[in-house]
Specification:
Elements: H1 3-94, H2 98-112, E1 119-123, H3 131-141, E2 150-157, E3 162-167, E4 170-175, H4 176-196
């Protein structure tokens, strides 16, 4: 074999090897492209699933938040209604005509008196519980008691109606504010059920 034939043979084998390398590279590239395509498809599917799950989770959180906000607003509205009901009740008691108001105050005072010599403190604007009312009440409670209740001459309380009985350091608050608040504590659940169910 001469030199030219040797060169031709080397070139031929080199070309064959180069073609095989190119073919192998193309096959490997096609295989990697296919594998990458499969991975991208799986990635897209997983991304879609995660996005749907995240959207559902966000929706559920938004709904839960909306329900909680609605619940708070509803509760606040109910409390405001109850506040108004008891505010109106206190106003109604304070605005009773003289006879039923004084009758109620007489009953409350008789129930609250312990010794009969307490000082009666009334609100700044109270006109109906006066000396004449106290004198009449002293006559009624005289038996068994000292019948010596006295209307405070200098002290007025920050109450809208009713009275405070004071003896030494002991005070019995029978103001309409306290009475309505006490009534609220005992009736609020029942009244809420009547109003809101």
């Amino acid at each position: 074999m001469n030199a030219e034939q040797v060169v031709q043979k080397i070139l031929s084998e080199a070309n064959a090897k180069a073609e095989k390398i190119v073919d192998d590279a193309k096959a490997k590239a096609a295989e990697q492209a296919s594998q990458l395509e499969n991975e991208m498809t799986a990635f897209d599917a997983e991304t879609g699933r995660l996005a749907e799950a995240a959207a559902e989770d966000k929706l559920q959180r938004m709904l839960a938040n909306a329900r909680m906000t609605h619940g708070k607003q509803t509760l606040a509205a109910k409390v405001a209604i109850l506040d108004d009901v008891f505010k109106q009740a206190k106003k109604a008691v304070n605005m009773l005509p003289d006879e039923p108001y004084l009758s109620l105050m007489t009953a409350l005072m008789k129930r609250s008196v312990e010794t009969g010599d307490e000082e009666v403190i009334v609100g700044k604007d109270e006109q109906r519980i006066n000396e004449q009312f106290i004198s009449g009440l002293n006559r009624e409670i005289g038996s068994g008691f000292k019948g010596n209740l006295r209307l405070s001459s200098g002290r007025r309380a920050d109450i809208t109606g009713g009275f405070i009985l004071s003896r030494g350091k002991v005070q019995i608050n029978a103001s309409t504010d306290v009475l309505i608040e006490s009534l609220r504590e005992s009736m609020e659940i029942e009244l809420a059920q009547m109003l809101f169910e």
